Amino acid sequence: MTAYQLPVFIPFTYLAFAVLIPLVGLWKRKLSHPMAVTGSGLAAGLSLYGFAAYVNTGPIHHTFGGWQPPIGIEFVYDGLSAFFLLVINMVAFLVLLHSKPVAAREFRGKRMPFYSVTMLLMLGFNGIVSTGDLFNLYVFLEISSLSSYGLIAIGNRHAPFAAFRYLVLGTIGGSMYLLGLGFLYISTGTLNIIDMAAMLPHFAGKPPVLTGLILMTVGIGIKAALFPMHGWLPDAYTFASSTSSALIAPTGTKVGAYILIRVLLYLFGIESMDAVFKVSSVLGMLAGAGILYGSIMAIAQSELKRMLAYSSVSQIGYIIMGLSLANPAGFVGAVLHVLNHAAMKACLFLVAANLRFREGHSNIRLFNDTYRKKYPWTMACFTVAAVSMVGLPPMAGFFSKWYLVLGTIANANWVLLAVILMSSLLNAVYFFRVLEKVYMKNPDKESPAGEEAVVMNREVKPLMLAPVVILATGIIVIGIMNMSVVSYILKMFPG
Amino acid sequence: MVESFAPLFPVLVSLGAVPLIVASRNKPNLRESWTILAALSKFFLVLNLLPYASQGITVEAKIFEISPGLPLLLRADPFGVYFATVASGLWILTSFYSIGYVRGAPEKKQTRYFSCFAVCLSATMGIAFAGNLLTFILFYEILTLATYPLVIHKENKEAIGAGRQYLIYTLTAGVLLIAGTAIIYSSIGQIDFRAGGILGNSAFPSNMMVWVFLLFLGGVGVKSALMPIHSWLPSAMAAPTPVSALLHAVAVVKSGVFGMIRVVGYVFGTEVMAGFGLNDILITVSGATIILASLMAFSQDNLKRRLAYSTVGHLSYVVLGAALLTPLGMAGGVMHIAAHATMKITLFFCAGAIYVNLHRQNISDLDGIAKVMPFTMASFTIASMGLAGLPPVNGFLSKWYLAMGSLEGHMVVPVLILIVSGVLNVGYFFPIVHRAYFHRGVGLSGHGEASPFMVVPIVITALLSVLLGIFPNLFFGLFDIAGVVSASIFEGVAR
Amino acid sequence: MCDFFLGHYSYWLTMFLLCIGLYGVLMKKNLVKKTIGLTILQSSIILFYVSIAAKWDATVPISDPSRPVTDASNYLNPLPHTLMLTAIVVGVATLGVAFALLMAIFNRYQSLDEQEILDMIE
Amino acid sequence: MRTQYDSLIVLLGARFLSPYIMMFGLYVIFHGHHSPGGGFQGGTLLAASVLLVRVAGGRLVARRQIKEFITTPLAAVGVVIYFATGMTALVAGGSFLDYGHLPFPGINPVLLRYYGILSIEIGVGLAVMSILIMIFDNMAKGEDFV
Description:
The complex is a heterotetramer of chains A (495), B (495), C (122) and D (146). Chain C has 122 residues and is an all-alpha fold. Chain C contains five helices and no strands.
């Protein structure tokens, strides 16, 4: 395999396995989980290899069918793509590794289609991140969205309804993106990102370009669950099966954020984006409102998964805020937070999955101090991820917030600075509430003195535990070694 | 300046002890010996740095870059070594005392107790040796997190409430500190601690300078229990007594005032403090705190709460010393860190011994206990004399320098505050002594002194207080180092 | 002003259609009607793309001997058409998933009214 | 939709129309590479021909026609054809879907492109047809299809 072929191999590994799983499933249904793990593992390995190749040789362009861009479609494997591919594929690999017992418990009969659709979902995500063509991006966006509707529908009784609402909003979002793209196409006559980026400064501020910009931002904002277009997210993540939410929560909204970064910073660029009015400051305000709204709503939730979902709304706000600041520090904060939040949210959702698997629920009100004895490792990982979410050093979460804070100060945007700081405290409120339940005995229920109920260790099997532990370790390691990531991200700041 | 990894080892040694403590959780004797071993080795590692400190030489360890241009920097300057010596030296005594206390009480979850204790001490060393604000914040937050389990150790309603309050106050403080640091970093591009300050007069416009200072005041002011943000400290007395003793007389609150001197002397610098009228803010706040806290101590019947309010008052002595902006005042403040540590730890140890031995917490129940606990009460008397500022205990010395310092700066009000506060200290401590010696006790027959594990540390700390009062340079030349610290801060201005 | 409206009449028509679609999606309570709204929305965008490909006096982009291929103004732009082919497929797939979900929803709640279902979830 | 209509006219009409639609679908697929048409459109026509009979004839006919369980593998095979063609060109040294690089020695590159596109269209047509049938079947069954 040469470096030239690499950009194709990564997404299409998933396509191959999406097809192979049902074919092999005819013969042996049991094989679908190992195959899905192999597929995502292969893709993760390839992205790692590709990351190294990118660092050594620079961006890789793969033209489809030998047609040179801007006529043909190309896959561009640049710094941002390499980074995002690595993040989402690693997380997907870990989540799928974890999923076997959950799948057997929660949707036994649908495992084969589930894993097949999962592969399609990842194909969509990988395609979005890889492609250098805006319409191709739309197609992959719809592939991933359709798969995620399916994945979310596999869940509890209310899951299909949540999936349907997501479908309605997601389709509107996709259509808005497509419409906006049409306006840009009218203006520039090209669909290639690099080509269009070279032309757009000449058209900046023209009505069709502005319309296109706004429509595309709104469309992607819906997919990325940017406040106030986040309505689909809490229900979808809550009602979906544990594995679906653990897979989609860390990757899905990140890919939405990727499109926003790609379109706003790379395609339009900071100056064209703000040519007519400050689109960036509007985005920043929305992101700030989303951060506060998500955090406050998370405090009000009693279901762990719903709490995490609202927390996602607020964390997406961080990423969007970072990109709206449009300075290097903010950009580093946003992209670093993509990595951090992917690791943290995957870890937290997998903890929720483990608890649901053993306890049958993840209702915070029913948590008690026996969990500490029953699931020592799971809860320890939860603690690490929670502390990181609050943004305390030396966890990863602190550093993305640190760069965001630097970014807001560089723009002298004191309102957003206050928002970040306040949301740290709000995060602390809802995470320490859980930790308090788990690590402390309930003072209202005094157990008879000296008669502690004997609690057995009911920790989940190593297969389910290992991904959680790896992610928790990753959070600490990323935090301490964030310098190498940051210097990498700094290099790809456009302009 | 010497480049060496020597400052790193004291930080790591107790962190390294944590796995050992956890691993030997089923063998209490082995577990405690790990604690003692870690305490002793930490102390000796700190002592290794002392020769450098007394000559005014800084030992610097650049661990690695944690953010572009910002290394994780451990720098053992005289002030840091001074604080580290005090904290690590008193940890040895506290370890012995803890063993007696938790076994005598008897407390549950002792493994968690000892491991969190070890982490706290690591964090304190980190704070002492932090070479820049980011490193300082890192260890400051670790200290917050590691103290939380100790505060809620008893897991009753009161402790959990105190824990929540503690988290709210300290996390808010951490956030303010991060904001202030980020603003300074964005403005002048560096956040190293340097004797004499890094901010020039032109770093910020004048109202901005005040705001930044207020951020820092909030950040370190919470842990140094300035009024009106002190109320977590009396509540945190719900913790076991050794915790109160070490953490709320030595590690946590002293980290706060240590940070205050760092901010005043090493970040803002005396020139800026005076130029923008920031010292007036600080003098007002700390002076008010000294008087109000002493008055509030009168109304407390719970011994530990009375001690807590006394702590609040005495911490402000240190802050006052820093705020005077005179070499003698600064030296007095620095000296009061050690002086108050030895005296207050004696008092807390006494309170703990009385609680374990007689199960009495209220001052009104202490009638006649000097008969059964002569050593304890003798030590108590010595320490209260010291806090009231009576010679020959070391409290007199630091107060003397504070008074000299304020006269040096031609300020009379601080002297008056010191005198009034001395009288008030006598007023709220001597009734206790009076009760213990001259009232007839009830139900004391059959009780003797507490276990030697507890009494020996009490006597040692009391003796230390007296010896340091008579021969200030007897141990490690601490008195001289305080002078060196103060001189370096003011020489930095001259240079 | 008049020119602005008449000159862009195809855009106005597609935007009008888009608004009908959005109205259906947002205001109708019945989930099937919402789905219909979605389809109208997507169709309007397809029409929009097709209309931007149009040129005066141009023919479909299939090589015609009577018109020289070297002159682009002889043939209308084929790219939007091919794009819309894909968009149509996407639309069909969305519709398929939507109906599958609707059937699952109906099986569970015996209703397709959004408000009733929300009440049941509460 | 799974029960048979009693009307003979509907059934016969559907059976009469179906082969013509199918023929037209095949025509569209096989001429897709040099005239308007192609896999999507042809596949849809093929599916229409199958579904017409299915709607009219109900379950009995469906069992004799394309069986329900075969649609998923058929779709997979369609995708495999598409994917394999593209990947062969890629592995043979070209880009993805670069038909000129297909490893069939002795064939004119122009013809190679011709046949390459044809095989892609066949794959797409197969996939589209079977997926449309699959959607119909799942709906007719009254289950969710995921």
